[in-house]
Amino acid sequence: MTTKNSASAETLVQRVQPTPATLSAASEAGLAKRSTLTSPRGPSSLDLTGLGLARPNAQQGKMAAYGQSEAAAKRVDPAHASAPSLGAIFHYTFFNQAPNARPVQSLGQSDTGVVTGDLNQTGSALTYSLAQAPAKGSVTIGTDGSYVYTPTTDFAHIGGTDTFRVTLDSGQAYRLTGVAGALQSLLHSLAQAVGLSGPDATTVVVTASITAVNKPPTITGYTTTDPGPNGVVTGVVTATDPNGDALAYAVSTPGKGSVTVTANGEFTYTPTIDARRNAYLPGAPATALSDQFTVTVSDGYGGSIPVPVTVSISPALTYVTGDVKRDPTTGRIALRTVFPESTQQPGTGTPGWLTWLIATPNVGPIIGQTSDVDSWDNLYLVGTTLDSQSYDSSVSLPTNSVLRNPQNGAVAIRTIFDETDPTFTNMAWDVATTSQGALIVSSASLQGWDVLFVPSN
């Protein structure tokens, strides 16, 4: 019996070396043979165009000769790769192994937290598709397996890890089209069913690690104005943020007043009446002439910088609760002077000698000590209205009843004497001075003096 085909003596499949750039990551590891089809008349080149195949280009065979690494020589960008060899197609159809990616993140990151990495360290011919997007950023995947992960602004500021899922396909480069493709698909399915061939695709979880990139605000400084007539000081803290974050400003409570700050870092400081008075009194220490508070500038992402601010306190002989008193029995009025309690009476050593100036209905102004008026009622002037308490009209103190000399700080309080009576014209005002003590004068002597209001408590 004769053989119908004389080519039976030739081996249908011969061992050859495959082209590295045409193989998948897992398939290359198991590929030991390459097939060359022969005709009855001997080996020949076949026209594979009708089967959806083409010859590999010459560049693939030269890659190793140019000194590229094995992984680089193997890596194929599917968008530019030539058709695979018949051996690779045969191996994929019957003995394909599932791709096994080992994602690696590159060292370093950008100022905004962007990182890069590689899904295909083996250089295999794979295709990639995003199976699940990251929750805290976005990712783009190159056809060669490289990826670029971009965190959201919030995530870049705080840092941490995020994950996404990528599906790798090792069969895309080896699937035929047309009739050949249909036959290949059938054979490949049978090979998978009997366990010869593994799945074409694998989905891997990729972790992106981000180091927090937030930088705290940069403080330029602050400026303040001189105190105004009412002691108010305004100013502004200036700052910038390296990350372009919106800045917020908060302020602490000063020790001698109150302060507010706007969203732009502008602040307004108002000293208390006590603070201005303490700054005015003779012998006031340097610490009485200023106040401090802190403006904290924050970027909303944990970056904050405290800015200590010092403001000036303008001295003023302001009157506070308890500085004007009235004897509920006699109607006498007492005004605290600028002399401190430690002032001693000459020759006696008695302290508090000039602390109070007392206006009496009959005697006129006299000087007294704190102990003389401790039990008296506080007399208040509120704004430009009369005191709300029910006092005898002859001794109430309406607006303009307390004056201050803007030149030397002397203070005058209106007495109960009617200056229209020639007898009492020169007794209309009690004056407390820093050098002469208590005086009584007429209204004409106080022309040009400022009105000094006594605030309520």
The number of distinct β-strands equals: 26
Number of helices: 8
Poorly predicted residue ranges: 1-76, 381-396
* β-strand amount: 25-35%
Strand order of the largest sheet: 20-19-18-17-21
How does this model look, in words?
With 457 residues, the protein is of the alpha+beta class. The chain folds into 3 domains: 213 residues, no CATH class; 95 residues, Immunoglobulin-like; 128 residues, no CATH class. It has 8 helices and 26 strands. The protein has a 5-stranded antiparallel sheet with strand order 20-19-18-17-21. The chain has a 5-stranded antiparallel sheet with strand order 25-24-23-22-26, with no helix packed on it. Strands 3-4-7-6 form a 4-stranded antiparallel sheet. A hairpin with a 6-residue loop joins strand 22 and strand 23. The chain is rod-shaped. It starts with 24 loop residues before the first helix and ends in a 6-residue tail after the last strand. The N terminus is likely disordered.
